[in-house]
Amino acid sequence: MVHPSRPSFIAGNWKMNPATLEEAVTLAQQVRDGVRLDSPARVAICPPSIYLERLDRVLENSPIGLGAQNLYPEPKGAYTGEVSAAMLNAIGCTHVILGHSERRTLLGETDAFINRKLHAALANQALLPIVCVGETLDQRDAGQTLEVVKGQLEGSLAGLEADQAPQVTLAYEPVWAIGTGRTATPEQAQEVHAMIRDWLAQRFGAAIAARIVIQYGGSVKPDNARDLLAQPDIDGALVGGASLVAEDFLKIVEAAEAVLAG
């Protein structure tokens, strides 16, 4: 059941792939050529930052958005190796992923730091953030999933105003399902998405909550995409490994189109 207030949004997180610019251009071209101009689904790809400027040209005049995988919250300064929201906007980015579990766990990013990035993205106005939340396997086994996700929402979205909230996409990514081949069942994913929607309704009101896109991420593939996307509170997917194979990614986009068509 698709909610009429929300589009289905499929974004590909390429992470630190592919190895060369030539491969990145080829993959982007294949995705560009495979997405219908009139697709009812929103689509974006999020390649490594070193490829962004070139891929902006590849995607010109296509409906596909271009996302970065991170930004630094300060507008400029002595922050070696970092990029600002304004820089990303200047080279054509439309989206930015914030708070991915790999950055939380491998690089120690906190909810407070992710929150600073969120406000930096929103202050830029043209850069739409995708904010990731999700629990580890130990937390799920301990029955802490909802508590952990609520805490991440409260910290990562602190200070977010109701009129800003619909600009933010949330991505629920159970850490134990990222790159492991394990996937939350549609019912497990829907339970958390429904909790997130309820939290949003309590924070911003039901009308605003109904407009906020909540993606699912975690080993989304062509063979499980449709069942996941058919859940009432799952509004798309943040796709990892499958986004590196154009045929697989396009099949996930087609699954979203099929769900939207009923």
UniProtKB/TrEMBL annotation:
Q: Which reaction does it catalyse?
A: D-glyceraldehyde 3-phosphate = dihydroxyacetone phosphate
Task: Fetch the InterPro entries from UniProt.
Answer: Aldolase_TIM (IPR013785), TIM_sf (IPR035990), TrioseP_Isoase_bac/euk (IPR022896), Triosephosphate_isomerase (IPR000652), Triosephosphate_isomerase_AS (IPR020861)
Q: Which PROSITE patterns match?
A: TIM_1, TIM_2
Query: According to its UniProt record, in which pathway does this protein act?
Result: Carbohydrate degradation; glycolysis; D-glyceraldehyde 3-phosphate from glycerone phosphate: step 1/1; Carbohydrate biosynthesis; gluconeogenesis
Which residues act catalytically here?
Answer: 100, 173
Fetch the Pfam families from UniProt: TIM
Sorted alphabetically, which NCBIfam families does this protein's record hold?
Answer: tim
Return the GO cellular component terms, semicolon-separated.
Answer: cytosol
Instruction: Give a short account of what the protein does.
Output: Involved in the gluconeogenesis. Catalyzes stereospecifically the conversion of dihydroxyacetone phosphate (DHAP) to D-glyceraldehyde-3-phosphate (G3P).
Alphabetical list of HAMAP family matching this protein? TIM_B (MF_00147_B)
Subunit composition and interactions: Homodimer.
Tell me the SUPFAM superfamilies matching this sequence.
Triosephosphate isomerase (TIM)
Name listed for the protein in its UniProt record: Triosephosphate isomerase
Q: Which Gene3D superfamilies match?
A: Aldolase class I
Compartment(s): Cytoplasm
The UniProt record gives the binding positions of substrate as: 13-15, 179, 219, 240-241
Q: Which CDD domains match?
A: TIM (cd00311)
